[in-house]
Amino acid sequence: MKKAKMREVNFYAYETYCMVRLEERPEAGTLLAGCRDLALQVEQTLNMYDEDSELSVMCRDYRPGQPYEVSALLYDFLDISLNMARLSKGAFDPTVGALVKKWRIGSGEERIIDEKELTSLINRTGYHHIRLLPGKRAAMIDIEGVTVDPGAVGKGLAIDYIVHYLKNNHVEQACLDFGGNLYVMGNTYRIGVRQPEDPEKMMAVVPVKDRAVSTSSWYEHYFECNGRVYGHLIDPASGKPVESEFTSVTVICDKAVYADMLSTALYVLGEENGETVIRSLREREKGGLRGLS
What we know:
about 290 residues, alpha+beta, T-fold, six-stranded antiparallel beta sheet, about 35% helix, globular
């Protein structure tokens, strides 16, 4: 397919710069505004640092053992996140929010958490504490103090909503970049994967068409203390920054939200356990993970 003349919109969301580019057409401006609005709606619903977001209100106001009704968007996020948590055997876990907030990696105000406090936080972590009630479109959480973190889901989910919106409006060519979470449609793009030790250099360039790309690595946000580097990705089992055998994990698949979650899960799991999970995911989620790389 020949590349068309493109138009784009740029905006700030998810603590990063976001871009949506699509083919030139009479209603391109309206479509781009719609893309931006969808992205901001997802962020406003799921932002755990905004006390007024629906996610924050839920985590603050729910009562253990009682159904808490949520919007369709928040329910979708919880359903997708909990499914990935189960399939990855907890390597990906959306309930690490309290740990993420306490470590504050990337804020400039990081500190090492002592073991007593760490134990207390881990006791408030675990995806198995959340159960969804589809008939009521509600969540039921069985203990107090659970904080849900959308960090490895939100951008991918927003991209998938936007791609669905564009396809419904018969857009054939588009490219989305939400802080390194990518989706390209209609044409083949050559996507560079950064070298973690020197992010100005590329360690690989891959051709991508009608696929999402997501990379997880320590260099995105980190701090150093006593000669040790602490990355921003938290291991749900230990409550500490992940000590991965990988320096970087890149996932390419049909759905941006799967690419987003899987790059995090595989970074935690390592090669052997990660390959086992990928095989399981291919078998159980063939529709959503077709073309997983």
